[in-house]
Structure formats: structure tokens, C-alpha cells
Design brief:
The protein is about 15% helix and about 45% strand. The protein has one helix spanning about 15-30, and strands at about 5-15, 30-35, 40, 45-60. It has about 70 residues and is α+β, with helices and mostly antiparallel strands.
Amino acid sequence: MAKQTTLYRYLTGPDDAAFCHRVSEALSRGWELYGPPTLTYDAKEQRVICGQAIIKDVEGPYSPDLKLAEQ
């Protein structure tokens, strides 16, 4: 039986459509939401910044060489 590894990513960006599209793309590639989204206010840029943790189970051992965005 092949070893299974859980990958973790934390997506961040301005609270806009582009951020939502990044999360939606990750979900369409098999990633799952991990916990609730986070929000903070960037006073310098005067905008809200979102964060969302996502996870995905993949076959094989973990390696720091994995390109998470390509999984």
C-alpha cells in the first residue's frame, strides 16, 4: 500500500474576485477547505486581506521539493 501524505497550503490575498478564483481553482483540483477563512485589514493599503487554509491527500511520501500549487 502506498503511503499517503496530507499537503497543506495557506492562500492569502486581497478580498477580491481574484482571491475567490484562486480558492475555487484549488477546490476544483481536489483541495479541501481546512478551517474557516481569516480576514485582516491592511491599513497601509486600505484593504481587507483574506486567508484560507486548504489541504489535499496525495499518494507518496512528503518532499519539500513538491510544488504545492501544481498538486
